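Now for one record.
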Amino acid sequence: MAAVTERLRTAGCVFADEEAALLAGAADSPEALRTMVEQRVAGLPLEHIVGWAEFCGIRIALEPGVFVPRRRSELLVRLASARVGPGSVVVDLACGSGAIGAAIAARAASAAAAVEVHACDIDPAAVRCARRNLSAAGGHVYAGDLYEPLPVALRGQVSVIAANVPYVPTEAVVIMPAEARMHEPLLALDGGSDGLDILRRAAADAGAWLEPAGHLLIESSRGQAQAAAAVFEAAGLAAEIAMDDDLGATVIVGQLLL
């Protein structure tokens, strides 16, 4: 184990001890461990190598090429969970691995207030992962662009739409950490010229799916928050900005105006 730790530390892994332990636990043979270490040294995200990420206290299954859930998205989960009750219909929009929906479902279940989760994503690999991660909660996962694949019967019935849509401005993608820009899909990162292209589309169509006074919550950056809130207002949603400095997280919370 010491040799693995040193190899990772030399390669620049800040948490070499923890990563070595995770790799050793995931490997079923010395040969497999060596392969996994070399993958990590080459820059492959740890979560893609071991096949899972911890998020909001649960294990999220991942496969190579799928967006890795970030800890800052815990704020989105916390705010969305506070706005659901027993039987609420929740949509995890542009769901990636389904981490947001799975975490909301887990919180609701622990409070004996089970919710009905629907999730959708345009990327086939993400859809495969989301189906695995939402199966225990009885979630429904669809392949398609934003709201397009959702069942028509959900229109006007959704309590909460939670989304971590791409919000990195196109020109900033090239300065993202190599793990993200080289090993996660561009469509999960690039939010257009100002980073708000997908957020605009999500906000514009949210009213058709939300129940009266339902909520749309979308993660953004601090610098985009005011512009994003204005987009929500233009779409008929009363908007507020929530931030968590410890997580470095910003979420725009919109409520459908009656």
